[in-house]
Amino acid sequence: MNCNHSNRSTFTALSCGIALGLAGISTAAPLITVPWNGHVGAVSFTFDDALETQVLNLKPLLDAMPDVHVTFFLTAFQDRLKDNAAGFAALANAGHEMGNHTISHWHLTDETDEELEEDVVKFADTIEATMAKYGADVKVVSFATPFCENGDHVKTIIDKRHMLNRDCTYDGARTFWDEEPDWMSMPAKIWSRSGATVNEMLNALDTAAYIGKFDNSIPLEHPITGGSWLIVLQHDVSERMIDNYAINPDDIKTLFERAVKNGLWVAPIGTVGAYQRAHFIFDKALMTKTDDGYKVTWKVPHEYMPKSVPLRVALDTSRVDSKAVIMQDGKVLTPESDGHYIIEFMSKSLTIKTSKEIGLPPKIKRNAKDYTKFTIFDLKGKKLGDANGFKVPESYPKGVYFIRAEAKGLTPLTKKISR
């Protein structure tokens, strides 16, 4: 019997409890992760290429905006890491993320395994060592593909040393809370060079915060029913608009301000990614009865997660009284002002003490068979036709598609499918 508890059905909980027998009854814990750390949605601003303008023009803006933290993807191309290391170390010490954008900034799909090992795996260690030299304690967990060129083999190499990878995709890309993405190919809305104007980016920030009406949105975006995670890709931050490559400092400030105003969680890609990735594990965690309460345990999904992954969690008071005591690492956790608890996911366990037995969870599970209509879209959101489940018909050319599932009374579900 599989007691990993892939769903929260009463039958599974009871069956696993009987199977575990003398080890104690196990069932799903009465704790669940609060989406997007308590915000309506999230946005991660990412800046590629380790450019000097990012240090000179962004740091003053970021220093004045404590609610905004971003990601810088560093490269050694043209000695940029060496020349700008001190500035990026200062940004790291201010709470911003340093990610890996390769030594060479070359085409990864053209490289040999030896070249990929140097460019992708070993360079992550180089970034950490360089930042340490300038006084910043950095753990590299995120990657960004140069030119957004990726493939199955490249993903395998990236996954050896990074928790997630950012690519690019069509401008309507969003990541939704309960739909686990391809962590080695995260979608991003691209800077103005791709044709995304500042106004379009502002609209995207509104969409992520679920502000506005979406009746006239492209078909793929129409199912938006709540907040989501938007990843934004930028490069040069300056007033020099060469080939639309740069974004003006005033414009990026406008984007930051809109994100904060909208109530979005403005955090690095590694921070939001780790939070969401942890949610898929923690929300299925099992608890076991002990002499004085319950112990909840779980596993870390990837070796290269951040050192700390604080999760905001809610206690299910329909199953346990609100006076239950939650302990972790030998300390009693105190509820936040909103009643939620902050637990450390990387500790991999916690205990719950309560005066009464914890009830079993209700059955909640969403399966493909629950949906009655499946529609295929291309990467630009153009409707192509109907599908039979989450499977692209063999008559379609090989490539990447989106399939949207719908049924009356259920939230639409969209998945990216390769053929």
TrEMBL record:
NodB homology domain span = 41-267
Q: Which domain of life is it from?
A: Bacteria
In terms of Pfam families, this protein maps to: Polysacc_deac_1
One GO biological process this protein is involved in is: carbohydrate metabolic process
Show the GO MF annotations: hydrolase activity, acting on carbon-nitrogen (but not peptide) bonds; metal ion binding
For this protein, the record's InterPro entries field holds: Glyco_hydro/deAcase_b/a-brl, NODB_dom, Polysacc_deacetylase_ArnD
Q: Which SUPFAM superfamilies does the entry link to?
A: Glycoside hydrolase/deacetylase
Q: What are the record keywords, sorted?
A: Hydrolase, Metal-binding, Signal
Provide the Gene Ontology terms for cellular component: membrane
Tell me which positions the record assigns to the signal sequence.
Answer: 1-28
Q: What is the protein name stated in its UniProt record?
A: Polysaccharide deacetylase
